[in-house]
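Issue 218. Parser rejects a valid record. Input:
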Amino acid sequence: MRLREDLVLRHIGGDRVIVDPGQDMVDLSKVFTLNQTAAWLWQELAGKDFYLETVTAMLTERFEVSPEQAEKDARQLLDTFREHQLVDD
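Output the parser choked on:
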């Protein structure tokens, strides 16, 4: 899978928000705010093909987390990305 290339991660105040710069008018019902970890993953994965295993490995390398917890967290994040059509499969 791959993050949608038309979406941009912006820092607005203390928040990290995914923006669709192609929108003529901002649709506030479709604003996606990421926590620090999800924003880091977004930046690291931008422009690359990746899989659940990729994200799991990134989490275990960067954070003190068990492989099982990392996979659970990665799966939840990627499911959310898919649900909101933030990735191309």
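Fixed in the parser; the record now loads. DSSP finds three helices and five strands in the chain.
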